[in-house]
Amino acid sequence: MRSLTPTEIRIAEISHVVPGTLSGKGAVDPESDAVFVPVQRVIDGVVEVDVIRIDSGPGYSEARVIGSFQAPGEKSELLDLHYFSDDRTLVLILKHGDIAIIATEMYDDRDSRTSAAEVVGSVESGILAAAWSPDEETLVLVTGDDNLVTMTRSFDLLHEEPLRQADFGEDKFVNVGWGSKTTQFHGSLGKAAAKAPEASSSSASRPASLSHPTDSGEPVISFRGDAAFFAVSSLDPYPSSDLARRQIRIYSSPAGSKPNLSATSELLPGLEGPVSWRPSGNVISSLIRYGYEGGGAGNEGRWEVAMLERNGLRHGGFPLREAKDTWEQGRVKWMTWNCDSEVLAICVERIDRDVVQLWTMKNYHYYLKQEIFCHEGPNSRLTGVFWHTEKALTLYLVGEATFSTRTFVWDTYASHLPAPRDTAAVAVVDGDRLLVTPFRTQNTPPPMSSYQLSVTCTPVHVAFSPEEDALVTLHADGTVQRWDLKNRLPDTKQKGGKAADPVQIGTYKVAFDQTEWIPKQIAFGNAEIACLLDSTTDAPHSRIIRLVNGAQEDQDVQASVLERLLSTRDDNYTGLHIDGQVVRLGQDGNQTSTAIELPAHPMAISVIDTDIVHLAQNGKLVAASLSTGTVHALANGVTSFTHTPEYIIYTTASQSSHYVPTSTLDRILNGEEVNEWEIQWETRAIERGALAVTACQSSMSLILQMPRGNLETVYPRPLVLAVVRRNVASGQYRDAFITCRKHRLDLNLLHDLDPEQFIRRLGDFVDQVQEVDYLNLFVSSLKDDMTSLEAFPDLARRSASSRATQGKLNRICDAIRGVVERRDLVKYTETILSTHVCKQPPDYEGGLSVLLRLQTDHPDIVQDAVKYIIFLSNVNQLYDVALGMYDFQLVLMIAQYSQKDPQEYLPFLKELRALDDWERKYRVDDHLARHEKALRHLHSAGPSKFQDSVDYLGKYELYDVAFELYSSDAQSLAIIQEMYGDHLFDRRDYNDAALAYMLAAKTDKAMKAYERAHAWRDLLALAVQTQSSAQTVLGLVDRCSDYLATHGRHVEAAQLMLDYTKNVEGAVNVLCAGHDFSEALRVISLYRRADLIEAFVHPGLEEAQESFLEAIEEMQDQLDKEVKRLSELKIVREDDPDAFYMVDAEPNLEGVDVATNATTVATAFTRYTAAPTTAFSQSSRRTGRTDRSRNRASRKRPAGRKGSVDEYEYLVASIGRLVIRAEEKSKDALPLLRHLILASPELRELAADLQNRILSFRSGLADSIDIAWLDRKDVLKEAQESGGMGYDEGRKMTEAWSLVKPVIGKWAGVGTLAA
Question: Which side of the chain, N or C, has fewer Cβ within a 10 Å radius?
């Protein structure tokens, strides 16, 4: 869908540099873009050749002579000129046989000296054709004695052999006889008929293939792009005859060795001399002329470019669109492919002048994109055509006296009308036909189109109007044609019809001197047409000719050349100078320079309102504001872009398309602050190599063209959402609903975009969406959150209602039901039922109430309504709800239409009918597990059912409901409270059980519950209140004190002994056992029992000191082991870091010949095109393992593995926990130390020993912490960089970094008091 647009035209006049005629050969310096062309002249029978260097700059060209050469003989001419950029030398090959070199490295760009060429060799028989390989390592010559010669770059001979050989070549076809006469069945004639020779035709006196009289007879050599093969087209004479035919031979060209004949072309009558091998290597382009004797079989005037495969067989082609007189007397001079194999240039010699045609191929169709004529005037001829070696769309034309450079760019001629008139029409140039397709209504695959426009000749440029459905074409002779396309817009009332009814409404002729000006581009404004012309003079500049109602107005653009001319909606034009400067061109002819400077030679450029979008050659996409001059870079690696009024859409080399909101871009260009999340554009994956053609705002579509040429229409989510958002804002709910339904968008958007408006205009929504099925679909799609906005970041950011709304689903259902019930209950019955069933939770009872109402008022539709509600609901739940309404007629109706087995429900219903009202309701609620309701029905049945109620509430633990029901019946309430106490006692909730027993006046059970709860205070208080015996109280005291002492509650146990049994010895013993020596000494002094100090306190102090020492020794042993292990792990880390960090190396699969679960990966494309989920589920069934189990196993294997970083982390954390334990023990040891010092001199020594042991351990612990944390940061950093499975595969890395190094606080014990 792309065409070639000329962007730069440069002309170099050679006559003022040196006299003579330009030779058609040329060479390009890819580094400086300088071009070398030879000029030939004959003086006294000697051919003088001057090599001219043309230095190219922005908008001008300068030429100077850098070398000269003389050749004897007037017929001698230059055959080839090649430039070697590595040593900056030129190689000249002349027809009489000389090979010369000109060194250019000794001259700078301003040096005016010339140098004579150095002849490095000569071929005595002369040279007929020459070509260098693309890798510049091999030179192939065809000598005057018809030998094929190959040389190295240093001109050493590699091989020489005769050009014409009878052998087909190494790739000769193998004939197995299929279809031949010897393999056919001959009936009664027998096998002798198969051996009989075929009768010769007497008409075969002349050969079937003869060359055309216009054939020059010269051989032509063409290399494949990888230099592995080359083709030679030669004129082969028939034996003993003056007749000849063309033949193409294909040679393999191994590097540094002799070429081998690979294949010879099949018999192609009418084959002509020009040949060019496409650099990509798939075809060889040649020429076949039909309709003459010895030519191809066909009508006169038929002329085709034939494509040959490497094996010599023909593979397609296309006809040249030339007149019959050109076919008779003209010829094709040259044909050559550009460096990226996209464009084929063909130079045709017509009767009046030469023309260069540029052809491209997409979808196996060849398009004629441009026709370039020599500007030197009538009867002007071209002497050569060649491409730039690296810039694919730069073409050089060599005339007799001028040298011309033409630069093109791929451009898509697309219409960008505002909605709703946007047709998304795209025009494609194909010779004198303009192929137009309006993509809003049709997607016609190329090379077809919706319709064609016949123009006078191949257009130079095409432009669409920004306001009208019209286009204009500019031609090389200055003709401008204007067309009113009249594309048909979609009409819901009228289907079918023509895609368009185009009408040509004007043909204008731009007046200019064709020898001084060349038409380049055209722009279509609102009320005028502007043509851009480039001058051919030495002072290059551009000229703009405006056509206003057919009248011509001129405007010169001095000082520089305009590369692009773009129209805007304000009747002005925007121009891009060749140096990247952007200018505004007003209607008054004035130029206004802007502060915008963009890279020159853009791949694509477009004006969108007041912004300009520019795609540079390096793939950088930038946007600039024409009003503020601000330039903002959008992306890199961009391959194409298009736009709508709301989005700029661009594609990237990473197979994705991006959507830039123009509103956000305008804010950026105007200098406003934009949040970071606002510049995170929406993306969509596309096919590799796809390019954007155009986008249609109204149809929400983006048209992409694949590399082969086929088209694909996609509906990007941003474009669709923009239309939905616009429709909802304007209240066009039906259009928004249809769009969401068609593109599978969440229908909640209709509400979530503006909830208040939707509720306010709910009546309009029902009026517009009149179909009941559509309303049902909307109701069933409702959700009780705003996730529809969260799924689309653009809407979630922009919508003011993006917050979650509680009760949204039920509120909308109630509102819709209220609206439709007022409209028509019968028509919207299904919608009303949907609003009940789709609520959260489903309101089945409300829906069944509707059925009851319909059964009374509209019994004829009840059956369909029942079927519908059964379809929406869980039939078992619906049956239960109907049963819970105690309406057995409704239950029967639901059961009958739900296909339930009558044996399942009829016996139960008959049994219910036989019961009284309360009993029936109790049975129903008990059946439905509505136990609270069942209990209430039993209570309502009267006192006679009290025992049943007690059994029922005990069975289902309905004590809260029972307390409520029997709160006024004290006797019944006491029974229930005792039951509740038993229930709590069984659940071991003894405190609450004791409370329930107390309320029920069951003191014996309460005392048992208090004792089980170990609430000794409440227990003994209750025992005294109930006047229990002394023996009973003593038993309670003994049991409670034993429990308290064994569970660390020593003070409470001692208090219990002292208060109720006066057992001072037992109390002191318990306190010493709990290391509460201060309280023990207080009790001894209170009761004046000093004898107990020696009996209980001193032994208790010794035992406590021993216990602390054992704890210190245990911690010391643990610390020594962990520090030793850390040193071992350090060695493992240094010797085997992969094992330490648990890095899984990639398995070596080379040589594996058995497919296993570890080496076989299921793909989304199975042999039988199963769905992706099916393919993966089949793989899981085959292996017997799921992704979850595999991941769990992979995590489990390395977890805590010995010798790994996980063990290191565990040891570091363990030492940290040891610090906490040491601090606790040190704090607990202080009271013990004080009592040991005051007890006796012997015990003071124990205090000193304990204090020293604690201080020593704390010192060692501090040193161990420093060792463990010495290189911890390095370990964490290396673990993070290794990507191993340590730290739970990196998931606990943040937790590890946040771990703080523990610190040992200051602890001095009791100081010198313990000495």
Answer: C
Helix axes 1016-1025, 1003-1013, angle to 10 degrees: 160
- Check if the beta carbon of residue 1100 is closer than 8 Å to that of residue 1072: yes
Percent of the chain with pLDDT strictly greater than 70: 88
Strands 284-289 and 542-548: unpaired
pLDDT, one tens digit per residue, over 212-246 is 888 888 999 999 999 999 999 999 888 877 888 89
User: Which region, left, alpha or beta, applies to residue 582 given φ > 0 means left and ψ of -120 to 50 means alpha?
Assistant: beta
Contacts of 355 (CB under 8 A, 6+ apart): 347, 348, 371, 372, 373
Is the preceding omega at residue 842 within 30 degrees of 0, hence cis? no
Identify the residue whose tokens are 């070596």. 1148
Confidence at residue 780, expressed as pLDDT on a 0 to 100 scale = 92
pLDDT at 188: 58
271: nearest Cα among 208, 337, 350, 329 = 208
User: Quick one: pLDDT band at residue 496, thresholds 50, 70, 90?
Assistant: low
> Residue 437: in which H helix or E strand, if any?
strand 433-438
Amino acid at 118: E
Between CA 175 and CA 194 the distance in angstroms is: 17
Return d(Cα 550, Cα 509) in angstroms, integer.
9
Distances (CA, A) of 973 to 638, 911, 935, 970, 983: 83, 33, 15, 5, 15
Residue 121: name the closest of 98, 149, 90, 144 by CA: 98
Give the separation between CA 796 and CA 800, rounded to whole angstroms: 8
Q: Which two tokens stand for residue 441?
A: 């209504």
pLDDT tens-digit series, residues 69-101: 887 765 678 899 999 988 889 999 988 888 999
The label of the residue with tokens 């107005």 reads: 553
The residue with tokens 């769009």 is 739
Orientation angle between helical segments 990-999 and 970-986, nearest 10 degrees? 160
Over the range 618-643, which residues count as b (16 or more CB within 10 Å of their CB) and which as e?
eebbbbbbbeeebbeebbeebbbbbb
CA distance 651 to 329: 48
Contact in structure between 276 and 335 (CB atoms under 8 Å):
yes
Is the model more confident about 919 or about 1006? 1006
Alpha carbon of 1305 to those of 1224, 1226, 1227, 1258, 1262: distances in Å? Answer: 12, 10, 11, 9, 9
Going across the sheet that includes 647-652, the strands are 638-643, 647-652, 656-661, 682-685
Select from 47, 45, 37, 41 the least CA-distant residue to 21. 41
* Residue 414: closest CA among 395, 427, 397: 427
3-state secondary structure 24-92: CCCEEECCCCEEEEEEEEEECCEEEEEEEEEEEECCEEEEEEEEEEEEECCCCCEEEEEEECCCCEEEE
> pLDDT: is 903 or 463 the higher one?
463
> What pLDDT does residue 1048 have?
80
Residue 302 has pLDDT above 50, yes or no: yes
State residue 960 phi and psi, 5-degree precision: -60, -45
Kindly give the pairing relationship between strand 611-615 and strand 604-608.
antiparallel
Q: Cβ distance 470 to 15 under 8 Å? A: no
pTM, rounded to two decimals: 0.72
Distances (CA, A) of 1175 to 223, 1170, 1171, 1180, 1189: 47, 6, 6, 9, 18
Residue 797 has pLDDT above 70, yes or no: no
Q: pLDDT tens for residues 1039-1069?
A: 888 888 888 888 888 888 887 888 888 888 8
Q: What is the pLDDT of residue 197?
A: 58
Adjacent-strand bridge partners of 701? 696
Range ranked top by mean pLDDT from 542-546, 624-628, 638-642, 722-726: 638-642
Are 231 and 286 spatial neighbours (Cβ–Cβ below 8 Å)?
no
